[in-house]
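To: structure desk
From: M.T.
Subject: fold request, one chain
Message: Could you run this one when you get a chance? Sequence is below, nothing fancy, just the single chain.
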Amino acid sequence: MTVGQFNDSFKPIMDGVGLCVENYTRWIDAKYGTAYAVVPRIPKYRDNDSFGVVRYPSLPIPVMSPYRLGVPWASPRIGDFLTRTRFDLVHSHSPFVGGRMAERTAARHDIPHVSTFHTKYREDIRRFVHSERLAEIFVHRIAGFYSGCSAVWTPSEATKATLYEYGYEGEITVAPNGSDLKRPTQAQYAKYRKAGDDLSVSPRTRSCFSSSGSTAGRRTSSSSFVAWEDSTNASHYPHRSHWSSPARVTRPRT
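Reply: Done. Structure tokens follow.
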């Protein structure tokens, strides 16, 4: 079995959704077959994971550094890889660039497309576009994206309710995000909390923190909608010569 995990953020820029993608990819690759994380390229970062990582070109988002906006259509290599690889299933974690890539890959191979709705988008989009009407249009498009998926998951009942509020009418499976971390003792928890409080005293340090799977994930995903219209129309990611960053595929040595 070969599975593709698609998202708009990944290491070294980590948030809750990116960590979820890493865990899915790592454990599927270790126990059930072959898995790839299909994610934006980060300059100067080199992957060294036990699973495959497919990096496609990206551009900086000045107002949301260090997050980046994926531009997969900028390189023909990413389209070639997604066409050549015989995926059995794709799983997206964003309704924006990564989700549209998964959608096209599923259609190309006639395979299931599972997508997880991780977090709320309306408020962030509203702040980004400064228009209630435009925010509702994008929310409607988000619901439409999930309506086209083979299966839709949410990590909690709360996010399930939110997706229904957006206008989605299909079936939703609540699939909590797993964790391979051991639950800390009360003494360890107190120690970690104190260390975190000490670090967060500095405003510069505080800005580096992200909540597990919430705020940072919403910021990443909501910023990606600026390229959504282009991504829905670029069915084969035609090459654009003024973007030269190629797709990079990293597989561990065997």
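Reply (cont.): Residues 16-31 form the longest helix (16 residues). Let me know if you need anything else for the meeting.
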